[in-house]
Amino acid sequence: MAGSDPVPDASSAPDTVKILIAGGFGVGKTTMVGSVSEIAPLRTEEPLTMAGLGIDDLDGIEEKRATTVALDFGRITVSRELVLYLFGTPGQQRFWFMWNDLALGALGAVVLVDVRRPESSFAAIDFFERRKIPFVVGVNGFHGKHPYPPEDIRDALALPEHVRVLLCDARDRESCRDVLIALIDQLIASAVQA
Predict the structure, then answer these.
(1) What's this model's pTM, rounded to 2 decimal places?
(2) How many CB atoms lie within 10 A of CB 34?
(3) Which of 192, 120, 107 minimizes the C-alpha distance to 156?
(4) What confidence tier does 9 reach under pLDDT thresholds 50, 70, 90?
(5) Cα separation values, 121 from 9, 12, 39, 128, 190, Å
(6) Residue 92 CA neighbour count, 13 Å, CB half
């Protein structure tokens, strides 16, 4: 047909990789997806309400005003051949039932940790270990502070040596990019060894 755009060849389409951004309630998942995504991220945030009192544990995150109720979505084009799709999981226990569906097809994950509340990351670490989904740990430095070195965090979380632990700031695009690069490097190394 004259004047129409050519139909793209499927062989020229980029490979896509699904990555989960997970962790406990209030660790910075929505912030990370938003700071690193090249598109305006899809967010399903709703305001915290009085109905959540006694259900949502706000100890240490009293300033939190909204929460993800389904997922966050962002995209990063690494090259013409590779695009990352980022799916941020909801952190509250009552929404964990969605994690199984969100994990379908995921090649890897970033587990964000808040050192003020490390116990909030245990469920996410367990989730990926049980499903044998490779992950790295990003230690989100709230207020720009990282009071513990990565090895201390590894010990506190009882992580095996092959799981990378990286200090990061979920508000900073380059910091988040570095965590994602570490995950991609780990995935490539695993594929080469297989």
Answers:
(1) 0.85
(2) 20
(3) 120
(4) low
(5) 43, 39, 27, 11, 24
(6) 19
